[in-house]
Specification:
single chain, 271 residues, Phosphorylase Kinase, domain 1, Transferase(Phosphotransferase), domain 1, 2 domains, five-stranded antiparallel beta sheet, 15% strand
């Protein structure tokens, strides 16, 4: 008897209410559950006339698709700037729900904020990636769409479906897993920094360092103090550790804040 797939199932074969479905990604579904969301693997089934369900035979090949991502969230527990993971179960990954949406959506719908505010986001994004690297996680999929806005509009990094775990004790700076490297993460981070600074999305997609375009073909960052850091990052011959990149950006931000405070003080005195 022929069957037509007509429902979504959890790993335990419970039928998912499609009204709760809020996202359909390449590696899984996102289901709204009150103040949380549940990321589940893409499992399908057949709804029988008697109301019971039958799992699709291919589900056995999909049920473990989130295993690595679960391990990533466990390794990143407590890292600042990472989306809050409530728990990992056999059914999926339970995360805090961030109703303010993704940074990509915010940039598309809102006017450019002050440089001071953009600097904060740049530092938060860089610090989150630095935290991942400190825990031995190669992120790979670093993009505006994967930075969510918390209640205070600080950034939270999500989606580690394409991430890799570097074995403990291995030299992280030299690690390479399926083309993913620390340098490639830094190059993708540069995309995000450029997008936040210029307030328009800029992306370069590649699977490995060798596919990255020549530095001369990348856009300039006129008037942006962090441009030198970004362009240094784009040069794979001298690409620095992301932690050092964050340190340099942070130092620039603090120096800029001191100058602004000094200028404000001078303005008050002359008034």
């Amino acid at each position: 008897m022929d069957h037509t797939i007509n429902c979504i199932l959890l790993v335990d074969d419970t039928r998912v209410n499609v009204a709760d479905l809020i996202s359909n990604g390449s590696d899984g579904f996102i289901i709204r559950k009150g103040h949380h969301v549940l990321k589940i693997p893409k499992l399908y089934g057949y709804l029988k006339p008697d109301g019971t369900t039958e799992a699709d035979s291919d589900n056995e090949f999909r049920s473990d698709r989130l295993d690595t991502e679960k391990q990533v969230y466990e390794r990143l527990h407590g890292v600042r700037g990472i989306a809050e993971c409530i728990e990992c179960t056999s059914n999926g990954i339970l995360l805090k729900y961030y109703p303010n949406g993704a940074l990509s959506e915010y940039i598309a719908r809102n006017p450019r904020p002050s440089m001071s505010w953009r600097w904060q986001w740049i530092l938060q994004a860089t610090e989150a990636i630095a935290g991942c690297h400190e825990r031995g996680v190669l992120v790979f999929d670093i993009a505006l769409r994967n930075f969510l806005l918390a209640d205070d509009f600080s950034l939270r990094l999500i989606d580690f479906s394409n991430s890799s775990l570097v074995p403990t004790g291995e030299d992280f700076a030299l690690a390479e897993i399926d083309g993913s490297t620390a340098k490639l993460d830094l190059l993708y981070l540069a995309n995000v920094i450029h997008s936040i600074c210029m307030w328009r999305e800029f992306t370069v997609d590649c699977a490995m360092e060798s596919e990255w375009p020549d530095l001369s073909s990348l856009p300039e960052l006129e008037g942006f103090e962090g441009g030198c850091v970004i362009h240094d990052s784009g040069d794979t011959t001298k690409c620095e550790d992301v932690g050092l990149c964050w340190f340099r950006l942070s130092a620039m931000y603090r120096a800029r804040g001191k100058r602004e405070a000094s200028n404000q003080t001078a303005a008050r005195k002359s008034a």
